[in-house]
Amino acid sequence: MNSNRVIRKWSVLALGLLALAPAAQADAPGQNVITTPHPLATAAGRQIIEAGGNAFDAAVAIAGVLAVVEPYGSGLGGGGFLLLRMAGETPRYRFLDARERAPLGAKPEQYMRDGKIQPELSYDGALASAIPGQPAAMARLSERYGRLPLAASLEPAIRLARSGVEIDEHYREWASYRLQAMQQDPGSAQLFLVDGKIPAKGQRMKNPQLATSLQLLAEHGHAGFYGGELASKLVDGVRKHGGTWTLQDLNEYQVIEREPLRWPLPQGGELISAPPPSAGGLVLLQGLGMLQSLPWQEAGTVQRTHYVVEALRRAYRDRGVLGDPDFVEMPLQRLTSADYLRQQAQGIDPDRATPSASLPAAQPWREGEHTTHFTVLDAQGNAVAATLSLNSMFGAAFSVPGTGILLNNEMDDFAIDVAGSNAYGVQGSTANALAGGKRPVSSMAPSFMESDRDFITFGTPGGSQIPSMLLISLLSYLQGDPASHWVSLPRYHHQYLPDVISHEPDAFSEAERDELTSRGYRLEQVARYGNQQSIHWHKRTGKIEGASDPRGMGTTEISPAQP
Fold it and tell me: Which residue ranges in the chain fall short of pLDDT 50?
């Protein structure tokens, strides 16, 4: 295929996209739908579909390209969660846990100096980096679920890394937040800055070292990253800069396939979402479960906001008991039972805010922030919703010499100091305490909703705000709104602590803010956040919607099934 071929695009930055499948079946959409946060990633996904790949192959291509064009959000040095739908008369779902893993030798004392925790050690530099999971997820997707060789799916990313990508305003904005940290790391300064400064808009940035690393992954699969030449470079580079990685850490890393959380909807169908070590899936499920006991659909804006905030307050309180399910036993059966959620909903005063301090004490928690999300649905009905992350923007701001790979700072997501807090002011929990080989809790929550009428995929970056964004979108779907509305409507958030409703500038009118304040809420306006990508397959009509958040630069493409 000519890689320079002009592909027709339909952008849904603000209005969404609606298309009619001419021969859609109830068990297959008959069209391919791709929505990602970057036009080049969307184009790469379509290229792979046109080459005979399925949704899983396209997801590999998209993840690879995002590593090149959005180094601030994800990459080979990070990890994430991927929710899969395998097409069939009775669809099957799997959850790929590619969350980063603490080095086996990791201990809280490594982040202390003179007996005191030094937060910067888990935020900047090699010591802040956990063992990446994204390369393992890409290899697993290709080898177990895809149709094409891994090398074919990674070709667009390798080509872009070698030829370069033009810098856009999003890159410049995110780089400004981490400029000082990248200036202090020679590898990152070389890869992502020009003469120590943020590159100009339109300047072409190349990363041939990353192309070589991607090529090793393409040729050798999992072993190309976690063993051999690249693994040795990674370990040597990390250890020379103060980290503790070993070859054993890399050799032992594996993606874990887990059963997703599932919750029945009263109108039929079910929510399918991320299980631990995701806390986001539980918060989403609990929030929805509580609201099902409340008259939210008949309520006006303020009353509905009240119900949603009180449900979120109680759901976020519960997430403090979560940790890596391979290390911590968690009361999921109780936390997801209909009786428990009904009881929680009954404790909501219909007229007044419940002060968080008045609820039973909960274990605090900690969270990272910056991620990326994309989703793919192919003509046969296979689907991927993927949320990938480096944690902070540009991760640890540490790039391993000779590899082109920028590493994550996911060690900051652990409760290194249970009595303290991480970079986002979020406190630690004993369930999420640091231990060698453990995976930190995350709010990432790629999700599906499926019934005999509809299939939807949705997800977003945004750290602790992810579950509240997805709940608001899911409620919008349940009201019959189009996908373009789910991703664009104004957002608000409450996470138990701090006891405040944070909201986008246009979320509430002045009168609505006054009424919420009179009910006992404290409000705080924040900048716009999130970058949601969603797909809606209307099974009974054959219509397909794809929508990319207007807050970002993403695009959606819909194409016919390949012959």
Answer: 1-25, 420-428
State both tokens at 30. 């008959």
CA distances from 548 to 74, 171, 229, 556 (A): 18, 18, 39, 6
Q: Percentage of the chain surpassing pLDDT 70?
A: 91
Q: Are strands 399-400 and 383-391 parallel, antiparallel or unpaired?
A: unpaired
What is the full DSSP assignment across 291-346? HTTTTTTTS-HHHHHHHHHHHHHHHHHHGGG---TTT----HHHHT-HHHHHHHHH
Q: Give the span between the Cα atoms of 193 and 498, in whole angstroms.
A: 36
Mark out the alpha helices in 447-482 (DSSP H runs). Answer: 466-478
Instruction: Give the residue extent of every domain in the chain.
Output: 34-164+206-260+365-431+540-560
- Does residue 371 have an active-site annotation? yes
Q: Which token pair is 207?
A: 């990363």
Tell whether omega for the bond before 498 is within 30 degrees of 0, i.e. cis.
yes
99 is in an annotated binding site: yes
Is 391 annotated to bind a ligand? Reply is yes
The rounded distance, in Å, linking the Cα atoms of 458 and 374 is 9
For 381, the enclosing helix (H) or strand (E) is none
How, if at all, do strands 523-525 and 501-503 pair?
A: parallel
* CB 406 within 8 Å of CB 58: no
* Closest by CA position to 310, among listed 362, 360, 348: 348
- pLDDT tens string 333-373: 999 999 999 999 999 999 999 999 999 876 555 565 678 99
Contact 189, 180 (CB under 8 A): no
pTM: 0.93
| Active-site residue, from 36, 42, 371, 375 | 371
Distances (CA, A) of 456 to 178, 375, 472, 486: 35, 10, 14, 11
The answer to whether residues 392 and 92 touch, using CB atoms and an 8 Å cutoff, is: no
442 marked as binding residue: yes
